[in-house]
Write a structure and sequence with these properties.
alpha/beta; seven-stranded mixed sheet; two-stranded antiparallel ribbon; globular
């Protein structure tokens, strides 16, 4: 398992990206140097009994979610930006800190218990849309696994007790 200090030493803060005023957390060094340990750390507090699949939110959630699914031995389901999946899909629009967007999932008929995975929780717009989209699509979200939670920008982890984050910034 990685300590908070080890994790933070492999994450770069990039000011004014993708737009002025935003500090982007570049996890590329962490992924290239510590991926197995990172996935173990992100998975440690999740109750895995009865989990059918992991849903990863585009794009860095794909990397983390797919690696976690392989480690745990469950399937992986990509949640993509609008227009990236072939039909039939179900969509959810949302507002994020620097614009608007839409998330899509392939239509799912059979109920499944899932863990939702992403890299950073900022204002919560993406995660709220992802949770609504899962609910509309017969996915029962049992846990959310995040690398970084910017708690000073959202209150979701106070509202939802199944959010697990490795690095919390107050």
């Amino acid at each position: 398992m990685l300590s908070k200090e080890e994790l933070e030493s492999h994450i770069l803060s990039v000011p004014d990206f993708p737009k002025k005023g935003v500090v982007f957390k570049d996890i590329s060094p962490l992924l290239s140097e510590k991926l197995p340990e990172l996935i173990e750390t992100m998975a440690k507090n999740i109750k895995w009994d009865g989990i059918d699949a992991i849903v990863g939110i585009e794009s860095r959630g794909f990397i983390l979610g797919a690696a976690m699914a392989a480690k745990i031995g469950v399937g992986f389901i990509p949640m993509r930006k609008k227009g990236k999946l072939p039909p039939p899909v179900i969509a959810e629009d949302y507002i994020l800190e620097y614009g608007t967007d839409s998330l899509e999932l392939k239509i799912n008929e059979q109920a499944k218990n899932i863990v939702l995975v992403d890299d950073v929780l900022a204002t919560g717009g993406t995660l709220k849309a992802a949770l609504l989209l899962c609910q509309k699509n017969n996915y029962n979200v049992k846990a959310v696994s995040l690398l970084i939670n910017l708690k000073f920008l959202n209150e979701l982890s106070q509202e939802l007790d199944y959010i697990h984050s490795v690095l919390d910034y107050e």
